[in-house]
Amino acid sequence: xxxxxAPARSLALAVVAALPFLAEAVPACNAEPAGHAxxxxxTPTPTPPxxxxxxxxRIAELESQLQKLLAELAASNARLAELEKSxxxxxxxxxxxxxxxxxxxxxxxxxxxxxxxPQNVTADQAxxxxxxxxxxxxxxxxxxxxxxxxxxxxxxxPAKSSDTIPPRALERWAGMMTRDWRKPxxxxxxxxxVETQGAGLxxxxxxxxxxxxxxxxxxxEFTVEPRIARRYQERYSKITPPDRFVVAGVFTPRFVVNLxxxxxxxxxxxxxxxxxxxxxxxxxxxxxxAAKEAKDEKPEAGAAPATPPATPPAxPPATPPASGPATSKP
Length: 330
Prior knowledge:
Helices cover about 40% and strands about 20% of the residues. The protein has helices spanning about 5-30, 35-40, 50-105, 130-145, 160, 165-180, 225-235, 290-295, and strands spanning about 185-195, 200-210, 215-225, 245-255, 270-275, 275-290, 330. The model is unreliable at about 105-115 and about 305-325 (pLDDT under 50).
């Protein structure tokens, strides 16, 4: 091999002298620049830490929210416990109503009405007097809620064969009876007391039989509006009024659910219809005239006759709250 020339030797020496620098430069050239590597990765810029005051405020807000949620949770749990307790109480009352119905009604109740009460009152006879309507209502209650005998078609109905009486069923029935039996009436009565009450009249009377004069039921009370009262006062201010009058108006039996009422009680006031139901009979009076004068008046459409069949006294009167002028308090 020929010996290198002088220029070649100079080049070789330069290369040898540059080798340390090349050794450092090659790895640096192979590595990616730091600024260029961040672009494809899209790394978000880190959020600088908040100052201590901001952090403390945020923590306080979170703690407040947590306490509020815990309070709402405690209230919800308390409400749930109340509802569970109420449900247990309602179930107990429903069972009590059913047991009372199974024991049968006391004197005057459906199916066991003694001879001194109307028997088998039909819908056409229901508005002959308060006592007739009460007995009719009791029979209707029994028909609606009494558990049917095994083997009958009604026994196949789960709603009727249930061992309990749902309170909502009582509420529906009470509302239906109140709406359906708001009707005109026309009763022959014997006034027991007539007193001035403001510009009107307060009257306590009892329904009587037109033929025998026997009382039907117990006395009941009603008010007479000023227009009718003036007519009465003009006619009887100086003479004794007759002993028989005809009262006409609208009869509204206000059926009310009372789950604590399971029997008649000592005074039957308000009148007991069935376990969980009582009724406040009310009359809005439109006419109050002597019986002789009433014969010349035309009864209101649908009004009951003024001469019901004879029936001895029976049920004590109800005393509903006052409902304005010209209303009764049977």
